[in-house]
Amino acid sequence: MTKGSFLFLTGVFTVISLLSFSRVSGLWQVTKSSPNCTDISFQNCTPCQAGSYADETNIHCFCCMDHLGLGVCTSPDYCVPCPAGYYNNDNGSEVCFKCGKGSFSNSTGQTACLTCPQGTFQDANGASNCTPCVQGTFQNETGSTSGCYNCTEGTYCNKTKCESCDKCPAGYYSNTTGTVNCQSCSKGTFQDANGASNCTPCVQGTFQNETGSTSGCYNCTEGTYCNKTKCESCDKCPAGYYSNTTGTVNCQSCSKGTFQDANGASNCTPCVQGTFQNETGSTSGCYNCTEGTYCNKTKCEICDRCPAGFYSNTTGTVNCQSCSKDLEISGD
Ligand SMILES: *[C@@H]1O[C@H](CO)[C@@H](O)[C@H](O)[C@H]1NC(C)=O
Ligand SMILES: *[C@@H]1O[C@H](CO)[C@@H](O)[C@H](O)[C@H]1NC(C)=O
Ligand SMILES: *[C@@H]1O[C@H](CO)[C@@H](O)[C@H](O)[C@H]1NC(C)=O
Ligand SMILES: *[C@@H]1O[C@H](CO)[C@@H](O)[C@H](O)[C@H]1NC(C)=O
Ligand SMILES: *[C@@H]1O[C@H](CO)[C@@H](O)[C@H](O)[C@H]1NC(C)=O
Ligand SMILES: *[C@@H]1O[C@H](CO)[C@@H](O)[C@H](O)[C@H]1NC(C)=O
Ligand SMILES: *[C@@H]1O[C@H](CO)[C@@H](O)[C@H](O)[C@H]1NC(C)=O
Ligand SMILES: *[C@@H]1O[C@H](CO)[C@@H](O)[C@H](O)[C@H]1NC(C)=O
Ligand SMILES: *[C@@H]1O[C@H](CO)[C@@H](O)[C@H](O)[C@H]1NC(C)=O
Ligand SMILES: *[C@@H]1O[C@H](CO)[C@@H](O)[C@H](O)[C@H]1NC(C)=O
Ligand SMILES: *[C@@H]1O[C@H](CO)[C@@H](O)[C@H](O)[C@H]1NC(C)=O
Ligand SMILES: *[C@@H]1O[C@H](CO)[C@@H](O)[C@H](O)[C@H]1NC(C)=O
């Protein structure tokens, strides 16, 4: 004999002479209007335990409806555990109650629901679990009924169930809410602080050639310059220009008396004696002093005419020659 049929017969023998029956799904079943436990006079009248309820389809009587919680189930065996998502904290109660929003029960027969932990929420009743916050969001409170918050700018969460978002580390930033992964600072910028929503651009005269810099920018080296912000590298000074300091914004043009024919120079080449350069920014070299003129020093911007009694019949003259052939006099 199966347990079910044994119980069925027990119920029948006990109540058969006392109750009216109705036929439900092939089983004799006590109606809801049945007299209470005392009237039925069950020997083993036991209330359903908290966390369980009377199973109306297989049972032969119901738990009492009275507020005293005096049950009428013939045996605790007739009570079935509340399913996950429900609870019953009331001995003798006929029904289970749905867990409220923000709570859950993940196993059967619970007498109370559990509160959704941080990092999760539940916006429905009768839940058997809580919904984890997705990446980029967090929930810092227990029992949330509404959802998760987006990570704020400068913070991120790259896993589910975040209870709080972490600050972007130095060298990284986040300029949107709901960030899963912070962005690394691009070349030409840096960030030395945690929790940043942007990166600091390199100022003019400096550069950053790597992404994710945490320390700052480098000065342009001598011979190079950067005349804008966010330089990823410095440009070489063009021919005719030079830079003899670090951190140069604009190269200097070669002064008169000098020239520079190469890029990236940290100085200019002085005109040698006998030559001159009358313009700034020369890229090509110096001119020979013309006949009749001379220059007896370096960096001449212009050649002087040979003084009276002296002459020069060649270009590039350093010292004019005396008209009296046995003398040669310095022109200065
Ligand atoms: C249950 O039984 C008690 C005792 O006989 C009686 O006083 C009470 O009225 C009954 N309750 C119902 C709902 O019939
Ligand atoms: C139910 O949830 C609790 C709390 O999160 C956990 O400790 C337990 O293992 C879970 N039980 C099952 C059966 O999932
Ligand atoms: C949780 O985070 C929200 C949104 O940032 C904030 O308003 C609230 O005060 C925080 N609660 C606690 C307990 O920190
Ligand atoms: C999340 O971010 C941390 C810190 O940057 C990192 O160590 C970890 O590997 C990341 N996890 C995933 C899954 O991306
Ligand atoms: C975030 O930064 C990126 C890269 O600098 C930029 O393209 C984007 O416009 C920024 N978004 C906001 C909302 O500032
Ligand atoms: C949360 O972040 C997501 C993804 O960035 C965005 O689509 C959504 O609008 C944000 N919600 C709020 C309330 O800021
Ligand atoms: C970036 O520039 C610095 C300073 O000049 C140098 O030490 C470093 O090797 C450079 N890095 C790369 C990737 O070129
Ligand atoms: C920067 O230098 C370049 C090359 O010399 C020049 O074309 C540009 O106008 C300069 N920009 C500024 C803002 O000075
Ligand atoms: C750079 O050049 C200028 C002009 O020639 C000069 O006055 C200055 O002393 C130089 N500075 C250095 C550090 O050489
Ligand atoms: C960078 O250049 C600036 C301006 O020329 C100067 O004041 C500073 O000392 C330089 N820093 C380094 C590390 O060379
Ligand atoms: C500089 O000298 C050269 C060669 O003599 C000449 O062609 C040029 O016109 C001069 N420039 C100026 C600005 O005087
Ligand atoms: C400049 O003068 C030097 C020395 O007199 C000479 O060797 C050279 O050929 C001259 N160059 C030109 C372009 O006249």
UniProtKB/TrEMBL annotation:
Pfam families the UniProt entry points to: Ephrin_rec_like
Signal peptide (residue range) = 1-26
Q: Which SMART domains match?
A: Ephrin_rec_like, TNFR
Q: Which SUPFAM superfamilies match?
A: Growth factor receptor domain
InterPro entries, sorted: Growth_fac_rcpt_cys_sf, TNFR/NGFR_Cys_rich_reg, Tyr-kin_ephrin_A/B_rcpt-like
Give residue ranges for domain TNFR-Cys.
151-182, 220-251, 289-320
Keyword list, A-Z: Signal
Q: What is this protein called?
A: TNFR-Cys domain-containing protein
